[in-house]
Amino acid sequence: MIKPATTRNNRTTTSRNIDRQTRPRTQHNAFARIGATARWALAVAACLWLAWCTAVGPLYWNDSSIANFGALNALFGILAFAIYLFIVVVLVRKAHHQPALGWAADRATGERTPRTLIPRSWRTTWRKRAATFRITKTGIWLQRISACCGRWIVRCTDKRWKIALVLVIGWLWVPTTLLAAFGADLRSQACEFSWAWNQWTGLKQPYIGFFSFAPMDIYPTAHYLWPDSPTYLTDQHNILLTLWYGSTLAVSRYFTGSNDWGIVLLAAIQWLFAIGCIAATLHRFLNLPWLARNEYVDFAHPERGGRFAPTRLGRPERGMRATLPSQSAHAPARIITILFFLLCPLAVFSTISLTKSPLFAFAFTWAFGIWYELYATSGDRHAPAHGAPFLARFHRLPARTFLAFLAANAIMLISAKYAWYVLLFEFVLALIADRRHWKVYVFALLVPTVLIHGGISMAINSGIIISGDPIESHGVQLQQIARIANKAPETIPESARRKLAPVFNLDQMAEAYFQQDADPVKSSGIQSKKVSYRWRSVTPESMKHFNEAWLETVRANPVVAVDALMAKCFGYFDIADLPYVSMDYYVYNDQVTSNSTWIKYYNANWRAWVANTSRQISRTPVLGWPLHGNFYVILTLLIGAAEVILRRWRTLAWHLPLLLLMGVMITAPANNFERHMLPIAFCFVFLCLTFWRDSHARVSTANTGARACTTKD
After folding, report:
1. What is the pLDDT of residue 324?
2. Which residues, including other chains, have CB under 8 Å from residue 70's CB and lie 6 or more apart?
3. In this entry, which stretches build a coiled coil (predicted)?
4. At 670, is the secondary structure helix, strand, or coil?
5. Domain coordinates of the chain in residue numbers?
């Protein structure tokens, strides 16, 4: 009688244990499926956004509306979505070491083979012909030339000074034949400093008045922001950059009588700065300098290993030389990366373009390389693919690299006002993803942000400088109100009109509306301009009701409001849209050709030919896309979507600032303004290299881990 009861109890206990072991696994599988679904949903949402921008692009090219969305637009959107999603799927499959088109099973044998668009018989024939060609004299000769070129490409770029020399040679024609590139912003900054200098030297000038027109009235800045005591410096273009540009041009006027020599000097300094930033970043991504180089191998301890190769093949008497680590980039990656910076107009013209965005972009690229070093030495599971040894202990950032990181972040803060948002965002992500480097992040990110941004805020509060107008951050709202006033003024509620009246003249606002740019609506420009924004009479109290009036206006006509939003930002994500303002604009415009003293006569025909040729090539359908900034924005977004699917969270932690910069582009005054896309374009090649190395990290980590475990046993 007792035995059956005992057996029954044992069975019950066994079943309970099985349930306890199975339940967590089942729950884990359910959570994994939910997480995978959420990640793929996010990637699909990114593809839908890109497809939507592509679909509505033709509508806004013709100044139309989404109300006229037709079958052709739907076809464009479907094709774009299919292409973008296919790219994401291919990236994910390649990261998992799977064929791009998946597997195909043989019906007879059941063998799995990679699915391709080319028939197997054709591939077999081509392989046989290629194998036959390789053993011919011509094939052997080509293989030797290819190997020789590959070795020399690596040897010519295996050190920072060699990369810098390549950039100097490749970019030397830019400052010597074009001298400098600039626009109206530089002239405004020089004017601001000049008026401030006149005030400091005791010269009385117009200030606040109905008939007066000071430099602060150009953008303009609301008069309620002006201190009671006259001051002519503003934070419109970042005060520190204004002081740097303005003082240099003032010294140039003092010694030479014109701004031109100062402009050339500023362009030359930025050209050198660009070479230093790009060379340092290329060196980090291509050569992985944080690895112990063979030059420092202790020959008294041969067990520590080393990498050597003959100085010259076939001549052993010339000895051996140190070689780069196996994780460093090979010749094709090096030549593609360097050619991008040497040939792409986005990079070439930025080296001498005296605006805030190129300076910020080069500093951001410099910091991006240091972020890569921090990531590669953080102990991440993908770190072995970037040079960090398997199961290596924590590596501190070298003092020289730390100072470079600090300098790059400080220059970003000096060049662009939105840089402090980017740095704070990076700081939060860095503490989440890599807490062991917290001291680096505090002193290289947080401290300069507090000192520089805090110092500027204190100067504004004390009345030393004038703050930028808050209306600058309302570009989307301004465009929506202006488009509704232009297209359907009768739909604006009367209550909204009353609230907007102290801030804007709706009639002038409707006339000034231009869907590509919000500056006309903000009354930016010289004295003869439409007064849409009542910057002379607006008060903080009247601005309090602006958001309420905007919301009432948008609710009354949501279709036109959506049109205004999309018309202002779709070009950043539509691969077929041409740039509203490309980088060649700064090479050839009225400020250069008419308002300069002698620069306009220096190689005038050559300058015009360079700008026009670049513009014509970039306008070539499909072939000109790699010369546009939105090409790199779109591909960066797709790579980010693939990283989300692959759960590369540490990589995303230092790639997400690129997404934040896309948000800055959407809120920028103009649509498809190429200078806002420069940081993303410069970092794209490095993003691809990181993705490729992360995709190969699993195999290398597994192999290294197996060797480490075997040695330990």
Report:
1. 63
2. none
3. none
4. strand
5. 37-115, 293-322
Q: Please give the structure tokens belonging to residue 698.
A: 């699993």
- pTM of this prediction? 0.88
Residues 599-633 as b or e (16 or more Cβ within 10 Å = b):
beeeeeeebeebbeebbeebeeeeebeebbbbbbb
In terms of Cβ atoms closer than 10 Å to its own Cβ (0-12, 13-18, 19+), residue 52 is buried
Asked if residue 707 has pLDDT above 80, the reply is no
List alpha helices for 388-543, DSSP H: 399-415, 419-433, 438-441, 447-448, 454-461, 475-487, 494-500, 506-512, 540-543
* Structure-token pair, residue 53: 């921008």
In which band, very low, low, confident or very high, does the pLDDT at 321 lie, cut at 50, 70 and 90? low
3 state SS of 237: coil
E strand or H helix at 338, and its extent?
A: helix 331-343
Residue 524: per-residue pLDDT:
84
Distance between CA atoms of residues 304 and 316, nearest Å? 24
Confidence of residue 207 (pLDDT cuts 50, 70, 90): confident
The span from the CA of 11 to the CA of 173, in Å, is 85
Provide the β-strand partners of residue 353.
181
Contacts with 186 (C-beta within 8 Å, 6 or more apart), sequence order: 245, 263, 354, 355, 591
Closest CA to 182 of 495, 538, 585, 504: 585
Using one digit for the tens of pLDDT, what is the confidence trace for 447-496? 999 999 999 999 999 989 999 888 988 989 999 999 999 999 999 999 99
Angle at 50 between CA 47 and CA 52, to 5 degrees: 105
Tokens in use for 211?
A: 């008939």
Q: What angle do CA 643, 649, 655 make, to 5 degrees?
A: 65
Can you give the length of the chain in residues? 713
